[in-house]
UniProtKB/TrEMBL annotation:
Originating species: Brevundimonas aurantiaca
GO cellular component: cytosol
GO molecular function ontology, one term from the record: DNA-binding transcription factor activity
Subunit structure: Homodimer.
Major localization listed first in the record, in broad terms: cytoplasm
Protein name (Swiss-Prot/TrEMBL): Ferric uptake regulation protein
Annotated residues for binding of Fe cation: H74, D76, E95, H112
Note on how the cofactor is bound: Binds 1 Mn(2+) or Fe(2+) ion per subunit.
Pfam families: FUR
Localization in the cell: Cytoplasm
Top-rank lineage group of the source organism: Bacteria
A Gene Ontology BP annotation from the UniProt entry: negative regulation of DNA-templated transcription
CDD domains, per database record: Fur_like (cd07153)
Keywords: Cytoplasm, DNA-binding, Iron, Metal-binding, Repressor, Transcription, Transcription regulation, Zinc
């Protein structure tokens, strides 16, 4: 893939994103850096990046594809359906269980995606989850758009 200057701008925007932006948000951010970038360019570039394994596409139930830079650090997602906050987490027990289930079914696990949807429990101790949280993101998914079922 040829890296044009506009693709570089889009790559930098994705790389610096602390959330999971959709194409429209990527366009807004990229066009503030380079006003000559069109939304069509962002759509094409994101598709190319996805095909090349540079970005991962997610659907958090709000009807829009969201993107994040592909990385070596595996994590799962918990989406707060009240606020839209996306919490990235890693839990070794869950990872082990997924592998064990695949093995019992006669498969070697080569990949998976886990998205959990929920609401905070009143009075829950945040300290109990601190060891699991990989990264927290502010509300980026509109809660009224989330289809948790």
């Amino acid at each position: 893939m040829r890296m044009t200057e506009q693709r570089r701008v889009i790559a930098r925007v994705l790389s610096s994103a602390e959330d999971h932006p959709d194409v429209e948000e990527l366009y807004r951010r990229a066009s503030s850096i380079d006003p000559h970038i069109s939304i069509a360019t962002v759509y094409r570039t994101v598709r190319l990046f996805e095909e090349a394994g540079v970005v991962e596409k997610h659907d958090f139930g709000d009807g829009r594809s969201r993107y994040e830079e592909a990385g070596d650090d595996h994590h799962d997602h918990l989406i707060d359906t009240k606020t839209g906050e996306v919490i990235e987490f890693f839990d070794a027990e869950i990872e082990k269980l997924k592998s064990e289930i695949a093995e019992r079914l006669g498969f070697e696990l080569i990949g998976h995606k886990l998205e959990l949807y929920g609401v905070p429990i009143d009075g829950a101790e945040p300290s109990k989850r601190e060891g699991l949280i990989f990264k927290r993101h502010a509300a980026r998914v509109a809660p009224e758009d989330v289809d948790a079922g």
